[in-house]
Specification:
Length: 199
C-alpha cells in the first residue's frame, strides 16, 4: 500500500512548516502499518488554478496527479487561515474536482477505492470546520473517509506558538494521529480487497 501527503502550507521549501511536521508524523504512523509514503509540498510546484487535469504551459499538477492516482491513501495537510483551509489547499481541491469526469472502464471515478484523510494545524479554533470542508471536497470527487480520519492541533487563540515548535507532541494529538493512520489503512485494505461496484 502507498500513501501520499499533499502539504498545503503557503511556504515553499526550505521554510519550516507545522503542516509539514504533522504530515510527517502521520506518515510515520502509516509506515508502522506497512504503508510506504511520499510527502509533496504543493507550494514547491507550479500548480495552476482551474479544474482541468492538465492546464498545460508548465502546469505541475499532472505529475502530482499521477502520484495521487498511484496512492491508496491521500492525506491533505493544511494550516488554518482566517478560519478556512489555506488557498493552496483550496487549489488542490479544485484540481481534484477534475476527477469527477475521469472514470475507469466501468464508469467509476478513478479515485474510487482511495481513502482520504486530513491533518490541520493553526493558532486559532477552526480545525473541525476546516476538516469538514476538506472532507466534503474529497468525498465529492470519490474518496472514501475512514472513521476519525483527521488529526489536528490548534494553539491558544491570538498567541504565536507553532506546532512544530512544541517540545513534545501532546498525547491527544499523538493518539488522534495513531487512530487516523490505523483506520485509514484498515479501510484502504478493505477497499483493495472489495472494490466498489459500478454505479
Amino acid at each position: 500500500m502507498r500513501a501520499l501527503a499533499l502539504v498545503c502550507t503557503l511556504n515553499a521549501s526550505p521554510a519550516s512548516s507545522s503542516s509539514h511536521h504533522l504530515a510527517q508524523q502521520v506518515m510515520t504512523e502509516f509506515e508502522g502499518h506497512g504503508v510506504r509514503g511520499e510527502i509533496v509540498r504543493v507550494a514547491d510546484h507550479d500548480v495552476r488554478p482551474g479544474i482541468g487535469v492538465d492546464l498545460g504551459d508548465g502546469d505541475a499538477w499532472p505529475a502530482i496527479r499521477e502520484k495521487v492516482l498511484a496512492a491508496d491513501i491521500l492525506l491533505i495537510a493544511t494550516p488554518i487561515w482566517l478560519g478556512h483551509p489555506s488557498s493552496v489547499c483550496q487549489r488542490v481541491l479544485e484540481r481534484l474536482n477534475a476527477e469527477s469526469s475521469e472514470t475507469d472502464d466501468e464508469g467509476r471515478p478513478l479515485v474510487y477505492g482511495k481513502v482520504g484523510a486530513v491533518a490541520v494545524v493553526g493558532n486559532e479554533d477552526g480545525a473541525h470546520k476546516v476538516s469538514a470542508d476538506v472532507f466534503q471536497g474529497l468525498n465529492d470527487v470519490g474518496f472514501s473517509l475512514a472513521a476519525q480520519a483527521v488529526t489536528y492541533w490548534v494553539g491558544e487563540a491570538m498567541q504565536g506558538t507553532d506546532y512544530q515548535d512544541l517540545d513534545e507532541t501532546p498525547e491527544a494529538v499523538a493518539s488522534t494521529t495513531r487512530a487516523l493512520a490505523a483506520n485509514a489503512v484498515h479501510l484502504a485494505r478493505l477497499l483493495a480487497d472489495a472494490p466498489y461496484s459500478p454505479s
